[in-house]
């Protein structure tokens, strides 16, 4: 089997993608707008070593696979192996076909691939390493991708025409209103990133806000930005594990994009700890990526695990609601923002494309390729309902089960 034919067989019949290869072979429509170029035998060795998304990703990150045309529509055409694993029978067939390439051609694992250290999963030390791998890259690089808000979580679009900055402000305001923030309150934001929620609560609602993050680079940027905005009396960001926050008695806790890093076995302790940080009547807003069904596996795609969010785990919204309730929270509201995250990722893809040459100079070609692939694939994942984004609001009841909640939601649509 010639090389282009082999890759075309992986993509399946009727693919609109033109595959060309170093051996002169070609498959697919000659006038296709989308193309996949197999540049060297190492691409086959990568696919032999890991038949599926991980092998294809390694070949792309290393530069042995190249894309002609836009990446997102190619992934859409390639979605059955981009967002899922190749079926076991096909993997075995590929392994038999490719074993010679694996033996003859050395395919070193790209240097930007995460190599998990020894130690217990989700220990403080291991979590710190996983977070540093993804977030301690370059604040300048993140500013190009995320835009001025430096918000690295799903935005909320008030309408289809809204820009990314408006949508990120709207997201922070929605969280603030769901939490019922008012001047004089105290907010704890766990996994605070670059401090967007902390600064929003302080500037827009007069709330004394504490954020914590395991990323040293994020904390450094956030502290400088808090000072620049003159919010030092109300806002604070610490380089700290959320498990090590000593203060209690908060009026509200926000967790925006942290639960994905927690792990299923740690969920009871996670929600119990956040419950313990609240005063009676205090609210928790948990905002995180979720699995679309209760039966989906908790693990993330192998490419995402090795290159993007090491040790990450996703859970169904039912699991989150059950665990929150089990730890004492009364769950009052939840909503799925899946389409909003697809739009957010599309905006980040556009930002990266605009700054592509600068991004490559700043973080290197391999890491820039990781991001290009990850953002486009995740956009497709949300559009196809392979992943979702839920906000779940809970309250720690007060005396005689008083919730302090309005009779109907007062945070708008």
The total number of structural domains is: 2
The arrangement of helices and strands along the chain is HEEEHHEHHHHHHEHEHEEHEHEHEHHHE
Specify the CATH architecture of the largest domain: 3-Layer(aba) Sandwich
CATH class of the largest domain, anyone? Alpha Beta
CATH topology of the largest domain: Rossmann fold
> Termini separation (Å)?
56 Å
- Which homologous superfamily in CATH is the superfamily of the largest domain? Vaccinia Virus protein VP39
| Number of DSSP-assigned strands | 12
Q: Which structural class do you get from the secondary structure elements?
A: alpha/beta
Rg of Cα set = 23 Å
Shape: elongated
> How much helix, percentage-wise, in residues?
40-55%
Provide the low-confidence segments as ranges. Answer: 81-85
Beta-strand share of residues: 15-25%
Largest sheet: 8 strands, mixed
Tell me, rounded to a whole number, the average pLDDT.
89
Q: What is the overall number of helices?
A: 17
Structure description:
- The protein is of the alpha/beta class and 413 residues long.
- The chain folds into two domains: 3-104, Nonspecific Lipid-transfer Protein, Chain A; 124-401, Rossmann fold (3-Layer(aba) Sandwich), CATH 3.40.50.150.
- The protein is 45% helix and 17% strand.
- It has 17 helices and twelve strands.
- The strands form two sheets. Strands 5, 6, 7, 8, 9, 10, 11 and 12 form an eight-stranded mixed beta sheet that branches. Strands 2-1-3-4 form a four-stranded mixed beta sheet.
- The longest helix is centred in the last third of the chain and has 19 residues, at 365-383.
